Structures are given as C-alpha cells and as structure tokens.
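Example 313, ligand guanosine-5'-triphosphate.
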Amino acid sequence: MSDTQDSGKKGFWSRLASGLSRTASSLTQGITDLVTKRKLDTATLEDLEDLLIRADLGGPVAARIVEKVGKGRHDKMIAPEDVRGLIADEVETILAPVATPLIVDRSQKPFILLMVGVNGSGKTTTIGKLASQWRAEGLKVMLAAGDTFRAAAIEQLKVWGARTGAAVIARPPGSDAAGVAHDAITQARAEGADVLLIDTAGRLQNRTELMAELEKVVRVVKKLQPGAPHAVLLVLDATVGQNALSQVEVFTKVAGVTGLVMTKLDGTARGGILVAIAEKHRLPIHLVGVGEGQDDLQPFAARDFARAIAGLA
Ligand SMILES: Nc1nc2c(ncn2[C@@H]2O[C@H](COP(=O)(O)OP(=O)(O)OP(=O)(O)O)[C@@H](O)[C@H]2O)c(=O)[nH]1
C-alpha cells in the first residue's frame, strides 16, 4: 500500500470511528458497567440484551449476541473487551454479505440512478458526492432536478452541477417530475452521458399521493429506457431510528429500491439501526455518512463498521 493510500485509509477509519463514537461509547460504557463486577448470570445477560436493543441493533441480533456471550460462561466473569469482540464478530457476519460498492455499469449508457428518500435525509449531498467522484474518474455526468416541489432543491442541485462540472436538467418549480426525468433521459442520450442521477422530491412514506407521483417517475424512466433505472438508491437518515425500517419497506414497494445509503450516523447513539436493517431486508448497503464534510460519505466496509460500532481500534 502506498503512503497516500495508507493515509487515505487511516483518514477513513478515523472519520468512521469518530462518526460512530456516540453509538460506540454508549455501548462500551454500558458493557463495562454491566460485566466488570457481575457474573454472567441470567439477569446480566438480560441487561446486556436490553443494552443492545437500545442501540437499535434489533431483537434477533441482540438475542444471538447474548447467546454467544453466555455460551460456556454461565456464572463466570467476562472481560468487556471480549464482549465487544463478540459483538463486532456478529455484526460483521450480518453486514459482510450486504456491503456492496456502487459501480457504474459502463455497458449502460447512460447508467441511470434514481435517488429516493424522505426530506432532509441527505439525498442532495449524496448526489453531489457521487457526481464529483465519477467526474474525477472521467465520466460524463448529468443531474436531473426531479425535486420540483422546492425551488431551493433545484438551486442546490445547480450548485452541485457547477461545482462538479455536471450538466443539470431542470424545469421551473411546480413542473411535473416525470417530465423532468423524460427530458433528462432524452438529453443524456443525445449528449452521450455516462451517468444520469435523478433527484426526487423528499416525501414521507405515509403520503400516498406523493408516493404515487414517485411511482409515475419510475414508470416513465422504465418506459423510455428498458432496463432502467439501473440503480434506485434509498437515502436513510440514521437519526430517525426504527422508522427507517418502514421507509425501506414502503420505498422498496413503490420504487424498487436496489441499494441503501445511510447518513447521519454521527448524530445518534443508536447507529445499530443499520445492522437491524441489514438483518431484516438484506439490501445492498453502498455508502454511509458519518459527518457533514465531503469525505464523511464513505464506501461501506463491513469489518470497519463492525469494529467501529463495538468501539474496537
Ligand atoms: N451530521 C451529518 N449531517 C449530514 C450527513 N449527511 C447529510 N447531512 C446534512 O443533512 C442536511 C440535509 O442534507 P441534504 O443533502 O440537503 O438532504 P436532502 O435529502 O436532499 O434534503 P431535501 O433537499 O430537503 O430533500 C444537510 O445539512 C447535510 O449537510 C451526515 O452523514 N452527518
């Protein structure tokens, strides 16, 4: 590994570890308090299970970890580091199969990505980051301002376009979002774009009329380009906790989500929600956001995430 790669890797690790520190320190402290002076009897194991559930890891995952911790150690003592090691192992086992890099299929021209998610989840930031990464790789990138509800969303996307050198296809606020998608695909084809990222309006998953509009965008994209959208990314805000599980369900049904991006893991002590989602839905996880900076949106690495959440170096 070169020095630059090495320092890049270290930078990623320290950002991930500090981003997940709220979840990790609440787990670490809780585990230390639990097992330092107590034997692993039924009451201690139940308290450990509660602690893991409070971190939003989910009931089935918490139960499996507790079973492993208790196995062969009934009424014995265990070191807090060993409990954290067992947590990291179990979490890595769950996450390894879903950790998936986001790859542009160059045989699809344009490769069409649809970005979905509720308001404020971090969609625009994710689009900007992906656009800048792919531009740096020499790809011709276009952005479609499909969030036609808010003038500010269109402007925000234009700023990202100017910053990254990606063309932005937009219509005035209030226009039909499916119409913007239509224009964008036509133009992306005509200009030979490699990638088209389509933004959509943030909407709550319980607003049926808004979800119907999203369905229409998907329909138009499919009709215009068979096989598209090639990726439908759901951006989830980790701070919403258990509600993220229902967002995955509804957006998958309406828009056929193919992968997940989870942002704001730095803003919660319950980052275990990502593990609960992986366990329940088994959808690919592409990226995680652990801060507001550009470099805080990182490719998702199962082992690093598992160790960081368990507070291991
Ligand atoms: N702390 C933290 N903030 C983040 C992260 N990702 C995004 N944000 C912030 O969250 C806010 C919302 O991000 P946007 O990208 O504008 O979200 P959006 O989903 O496009 O929102 P709408 O345009 O309202 O639909 C911004 O202030 C971002 O800087 C993260 O991982 N951690």
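Summary: The radius of gyration is 21 Å.
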